[in-house]
Request: fold
Amino acid sequence: MQYSEIMVRHGELSTKGKNRMRFINKLKRNIQDVLSVYPKVKVRSDRDRTHVFLNGTDYKPVVESLKLVFGIQGLSPVYKVEKKVDVLISSVQEIMSGLYREGLSFKISGKRSDHQFELDSRQLNQVLGHAVFEILPDITAQMKNPDVNLKVEIREEAAYISHEDIKGAGGLPVGSSGKGMLMLSGGIDSPVAGYLALKRGVAIEVVHFASPPYTSPGALKKAQDLTRKLTRFGGNIQFIEVPFTEIQEEIKNKAPEAYLMTLTRRFMMRITDRIRAERSGLVIINGESLGQVASQTLESMQAINAVTSTPVIRPVVTMDKLEIIDIAQAIDTFDISIQPFEDCCTIFAPDRPKTNPKLSNVEKYEERFDIEALVIRAVEAVNISEISPEIEKDTVSELITDLL
Ligand code: ATP
Ligand code: MG
Reply:
């Protein structure tokens, strides 16, 4: 027998009153994005559940993908069968023989949502339990914590049988808490920051500053690959590449070396904020973490942040590097982040940046620039592309093993 659908139970959103349908629709669209690599899969949502119809697609990689999507509490692969007693009996027998091993315990949890059906839930348990004993006489029935709890639900349109309860990622559906701009370098921290924002339902658009020819196509691809990893948690992400060469060259020529970093970061912040406003984002998200490098002292944060009153969310600000690395490894971004392509900041980084930049000095040096014109030119020249999930390599190899 083949699973026909995966039943998805909604997470925290079940408590969210009148916004409920809006949340569910977000989740549905996110699931559609994430599963877009499986062309036969169809998704439908109602108030209580989301149904993922497999239409012949292997359920295993689909389950693996769904396990990462925020807003899902749990999921169960389900067999859909005809609502006839003899069909139910033979299906239950087939499923249980497939699962059987010595010492296995089980129970049947029948449920009759269609009250016209000839057996009520108690009778369902009896008849189907009996059918299992008929073919597997050594199996044990156990009401409390059995190895297999076979759920059989009779509904209007058909009967549904399931026995696996798989834990979902929890969190909130991406997009249910509005949208923010994630400043993504190619480092370890910003993808983790993005992941943590996604977890609490913040949709992200990625802003990446590139300075060709100082930065290589490899550095750009790295940022895109990191973004693609982030699409697994809630669907497609807009990737906004900002040309930053002109500004970096100008800063290098006009500002004292100790202030390069602060000035660079203030330009990044201004440009990101401008893009945010144009695209109706509510916040900026970055990967700053306290004390790692000179750019990340409180004084420095203050000087950089002074160019905007937009809230800047720093999900990893108080984490230790090792804690951040643990998450990066868990979400599979670490290996990409450590690829040796230098980003624009590494290349222009001064040997000894100011750890306590004075705002009055910063502003004095900035008088040397036509800030508005530089910002506008960068914003007007952005290159935007949509990044969607791809079949993961490990899933592909699993598919290949299945074929053999
Ligand atoms: P990361 O590991 O994310 O690169 P980091 O610890 O190296 O962070 P910095 O290099 O000081 O820290 O950068 C601080 C933050 O500034 C980054 O986390 C990121 O949000 C943003 N940032 C830095 N460089 C870029 C870039 N080229 N494009 C977009 N954002 C950037
Ligand atoms: Mg960095």
